Amino acid sequence: MGLARRYMVVMLALVVLITGTILGSAHSDVVPIASARELSDGESVTVKGVVTSTPGNWGGAGFYIQDETGGVYVWEPSPSDTYSQGDTVVVAGKLATFNGERQVQDGSIVFAEEPMPEPEPLTKKLADLSLDNEGLLIQLQQVEILELREVNIYGTFEMIVEDETGKALVRVDNRIGIRYEEFDGEVGDFYTLTGIIGQFRGALQVKPRDPAELVRVEPPIEPGVAWIADAREFPDGTEVTVIGVITAPDTMSTRTFYVQDKSAGIMVHYPSSLTFAASYGDRVRIAGATGEFNGERQIVMSHLEVVEENVQVPEPKVTDIEGLDENEGFLVKLERVTIRNITTFSSGSSNIDISDKTGTTVMRVEVAT
Prior knowledge:
- This protein is mainly β and 369 residues long.
- Helix content is 10%, strand content 43%.
- The chain starts with a helix and ends with a strand.
């Protein structure tokens, strides 16, 4: 090997070593986003987080990132498709403030070696929103549109929304894929909105990331009470209150029963520390947390109140076996089914295999039914 060739190999090895060292040191200097936000403008910082918005939604190629402590905007001037929502990145740059909002700019961005889970939106009441939450992904449930207006020639629009705790500004940028004239909401409509908390010169604003995060919902039954259909869509662990009629009491001794309103039905589980003090046909108010058990949506109850005793139980919804999944929680009626097999247990309960032209399923009949 000639001198020039050996020199080239040595230099390549040195470049690889130096590059790896720089990347490693960048990772070792990572600080939590919440701590980075406390630094002064111009200070150098390295943060790691999950990309929570599509680059360029609010200009250039900028995007938000979030870790378990907070969120922050990353300013990138040139449009790029290198990073996508859900990617985990390490950003090394300088802290800055633009129109009141903290951001990281003038730096480098690399993919993280160890990915982080994509954050679920935090459910918030409007009174809970503050600039301390800047950069976080949140969800507002069942808020009413009080004002609606277009704010520029490109189709960006703003809404003032309200829940039982307060009001907030929602800014829908045309660059997320919807223009003012394409939005079918009106003043007085109720929506569940998901977005990132930002600010403009001290004014807090919620910024949806995609048209799909503007979801029209039924008006609440009363302040603070959700329709069951909406509650079924809330993230696990969301505190919720619903009002419905008991359509199936706890006949299986599994500490579960079913309630239904005009929008949907859902299974309710109550822990051993609580008592099921209601009956089939009672209209009840249930407070608890949303969740899932064996693939089925449920509310883990923390409080039950009988609103009215022995009311009209909803008529069963006629469906076929294929439609059972989409009607989960509803009181249903299956017509023209064939009994294929009956298995009776020592307890007296039975599993009945049934079928129709769309499929097969098992119907459970409890001895206490």
